[in-house]
Amino acid sequence: MPADLKGKVALVTGGATGIGLGAALAFARAGADVAVNYSKNETAAAKAVKELQGLGRRAIAVKAHVAREPEVKAMIDRVARELGGLDILVNNAGWTRAVQPHRNLDALTDEVLDGVWAVNVKGAFYCVRAAVPHMERRGGGAVVNITSVAAFTGQGSSMAYAGSKAALQTMTKSLARALAPSIRVNAVAPGLIATGFGGWTEAQCEATAKVTPTGKLPTTEDTADAIFYLATSPAITGQTIVVDGGLVELGPRA
Ligand SMILES: NC(=O)c1ccc[n+]([C@@H]2O[C@H](COP(=O)([O-])OP(=O)(O)OC[C@H]3O[C@@H](n4cnc5c(N)ncnc54)[C@H](OP(=O)(O)O)[C@@H]3O)[C@@H](O)[C@H]2O)c1
Q1: What is the pLDDT of residues 142-163, one digit of tens each?
Q2: Could you tell me the domains of the chain?
Q3: In the annotation, is 161 catalytic?
Q4: Does the pTM exceed 0.85?
Q5: 176 CB burial (10 A radius; 0-12, 13-18, 19+)
Q6: Ligand 1 pocket, mutate which of 47, 72, 95 (most atoms under 8 A from CB)
């Protein structure tokens, strides 16, 4: 039976587009009020809020660069104030820049090394740190971190990106232990999803789909299903669901 999230509040960072928007819509369809965070794309954020409100929910867009802790604190306080609390946090905001081939070590600049670490690792941590007191006030909550198959394979848009997602994988387990029993912390590790993230071309997406065991790339909705499941399953913490059509676990289809 699908979870009933009436009276619950979810915050999805980077929730105005792609995978984050898919998750925000899934929470709203189940009855939650939803805040979507963005750092630049105000147009997408306004559109997302309209779509969420169209489902009959309260929805707000909150601008904050997740790597800046004062902005994160202000964002989470505002969500709790305007929507009445915070129950679910999805750390979905992510940043990368393609630096390929990985062998080109000199191309991996400090801007990329520091940028991925700041957004993908510190940003997620700042959001959890600010969210915990609000969740505790409601008797508990759930966090879902969006990592990547790059965390397991070391492949992906850049070596630094893969490393940052591996750090977030490990931090998911550390946080799950540290925040138990009241707050559950899990991760979803997507494979290639055609959102435009990472700058993958249509040809690269097609080639990956061809060798994917399920015969196609997962969608943002497929990924949102896994996020929703982990956010609403009371017996699951410290876990990861890989949403990649079986490619990492089974290897490429011949
Ligand atoms: N698509 C894939 O193949 C894939 C695979 C594995 C993992 N992922 C992960 O999935 C997550 C979502 O990506 P997506 O594919 O849905 O791409 P996307 O549509 O580009 O989403 C990324 C979101 O992050 C937001 N963002 C970036 N920097 C931010 C910052 N400093 N503060 C707040 N928000 C920020 C962006 O909003 P603004 O433009 O407003 O900054 C954007 O809405 C990312 O964490 C990514 O690493 C994606």
Answers
A1: 999 999 999 999 999 999 999 9
A2: 9-241 (3.40.50.720)
A3: yes
A4: yes
A5: buried
A6: 95
